[in-house]
Amino acid sequence: MSVSETVKKIIAEQAMLEPEDVTDASTLEDLGLDSLGLVECIFGIEEAFDIEVPFNANEPEKSDFDISSVASIVTAVESLVAAQS
Amino acid sequence: MKRVVITGAGTINALGNNVPDTLEGMREGRLGIGPLEFPNVDRLQIKIGAQVRDYDEAANFNRQQIALYDRFTQFTLLAAREAIGQAGLTFGGELAARAGVVLGTAAGGMNTWEDNYRAVYEEGKNRVHPFVVPRLMNNAAASHVSMEYNLKGPSFTVSTACASSNHAMGQAFEMIRAGGALAMVTGGSEAMLTFGGIKAWEGLRVMSRDACRPFSGNRNGMVQGEGAGVFVFEEMEHAKARGADILAEVSGFAMTSDAADIVMPSQQGAGRAIAGALKDAGMAPDEIGYINAHGTGTAANDKTECAAVAGAFGAHADQLMISSTKSMHGHCIGGTGAVELLACIMALRDGVIAPTIGYEEPDPECALDVVPNVAREARVTGALSNAFAFGGLNAVLALRAV
């Protein structure tokens, strides 16, 4: 499974959707994910890829981990996997 | 209805091992937060906290006591000793029967849980000390205070996360006001600065890695502290009759539930608790000169709290002072409301308003007088202490100068 597929599967599970309903352009808001859903997604991503995601819920905009869309999350995960593997 | 006053105060926290040192720390705007020191801290992402430093349990308790007293119980007993000593009460006869202990803690004997889990899971031991259960139970501290001081009335422990102490003190207040008790030892304690305690909080991603900056535009989360605050609440006529030194009057209390979200605070729930405490106290909004804020330094709490205060006080919100002493002693979780009540007493009794330190830039969503960085002298006759817990449980105490 690619990084993109795995991330979408994790997000879909939290959003209680089918993975195909999670598109690159989707935002977390579109998918109905609240702040707790987001931290659960990040936890799922850390576990799935064995990486540390630098994310502070108090200042999401300052984090290198861009959560503005599913595509941006996938890109961020890809670079973390490359940097931390 | 009886009136309720505070006749004794005690504490141990990162700012000091007693009330005078703590108040001096608050006056000076001293930072109690620093690098955490305990096993495996290298495996944490969050490495700062407001620890009680250079603490030597053997200097305060004997070996048999230590076998029974978790760190949160030890903190409680040290604070209780100071508070009851100041009150000058000896409990016997009718007074003992009508005096009790209500304390708050969120995690209770966390160190005991952790040490023994390490022993059985990590080290593979198959035997633990026989006192693990009486040491870790959340009511251990309240029970030991009752035993130490012969308090034979109602005693129990309240656990409502970060509002535990305020809920506890609210119960103590209401028991005396209703005429059921003459004196209550009350407050709270927390000692969850452990590897597991911080690891659990890390997961929520609301902790700051560098500093607690409540209300500051660049705040980035909470910083945990530890410690205890314990007070003697006493029926006013009883205190006056014996010529006790009265620190302040507890004038009102209110608690509300957001009934909304397990972690996100609610302006409406907080606002109802603030307005409720004023109403319960029979105080007009303009009687309140100082609020000790919940002020955790998270994005969510601080803007919600400021909006709640602005909503509850209307135009007077711009006249009052509101500070978060968590910037100095950290967030003492279930003990925090009790440690913070000291700042209210200092405001009412000494006319010194504790600052919000670490304040670096304004936030338009927190546009109140947050007493940035430097303590201030001001005459204040009424104060509130806010506590808003995870789970949407809010508890606000109102105090009046005497």
Brief overview:
Chain A contains three helices and no strands. Chain A is an all-alpha fold and 85 residues long.
Structure, explained:
The complex is a heterodimer of chains A (85) and B (402). Chain A is mainly alpha-helical. Chain A has a single domain, classed as ACP-like (Non-ribosomal Peptide Synthetase Peptidyl Carrier Protein, Chain A), CATH 1.10.1200.10. In chain A, 51% of the residues lie in helices and 0% in strands. Chain A has helices at residues 3-15, 35-49, 70-84. Chain A is globular, with a radius of gyration of 12 Å. Chain A starts with a helix and ends with a helix. The model of chain A has no long low-confidence stretch (mean pLDDT 93). Chain B has helices at residues 19-28, 57-60, 63-68, 71-87, 93-97, 110-122, 132-136, 140-149, 164-177, 195-202, 236-241, 267-281, 299-313, 326-329, 336-350, and strands at 4-13, 34-35, 48-49, 99-104, 155-158, 183-190, 227-235, 248-257, 290-292, 321-323, 352-353, 376-377, 382-389, 393-400. In chain B, a hairpin with a 3-residue loop joins strand 13 (382-389) and strand 14 (393-400).
Q: What brief labels describe this structure?
A:
heterodimer; A: mainly alpha; 3 helices; 51% helix; 0% strand; B: alpha/beta; Peroxisomal Thiolase, Chain A, domain 1; ten-stranded mixed sheet; 19% strand
